[in-house]
Amino acid sequence: MKNKIMIVDDSSFATQVATYSLVHVNVELEVENNPVEAMKYLKSKKEEDIPDLILLDYNMPKMTGFDFIRELKKEENLKYIPIIMISTENSSQVKKDGFKLGVDLWLNKPYSKEELKESIFKVINTED
């Protein structure tokens, strides 16, 4: 059974890089460039269709990655989804705040294909 991963990033380039990096990994990808729409989409999902992991950008218009997490944590059926925050933000205080909110792993952009895969495997314990 394939793990479901949702990528939420306002940059089409960033989502293409992540998608390309995972092309040979046995996962089902969902991509959303608008965090507000991604949240609406998640709230409408049935339990069996909820992603196993969210790759989330920190800096996005309309809703930051942290705002997204706060909204996610309000939903009983969504609050346990693991989150890998992907960002150019490298401040130790911002990262600390992210982990307090529920970020499972922080991955700095730019990242290699191997770094992304290793991060995903660490969080959802899946194999190639």
Brief overview:
The chain has 128 residues and is α/β, with parallel strands linked by helices.
SS summary, helix count:
5
Structure classification: alpha/beta
Largest sheet: 5 strands, parallel
What topology, given as strand order, has the largest sheet?
2-1-3-4-5
Mean pLDDT: 93
Which overall shape is indicated by the principal axes computed on the Cα atoms?
globular
- Helical fraction: 25-40%
Radius of gyration, Cα only, in angstroms? 13 Å
User: What is the strand tally?
Assistant: 5
Instruction: Please state the oligomeric state of the protein chains shown.
Output: single chain
**Hey, roughly how much beta strand do the residues contain?**
15-25%
Which parts are unreliable, with pLDDT below 50 for 5 consecutive residues or more?
none
Order of helices and strands: EHEHEHEHEH
The rounded distance between the terminal residues' Cα atoms is 12 Å
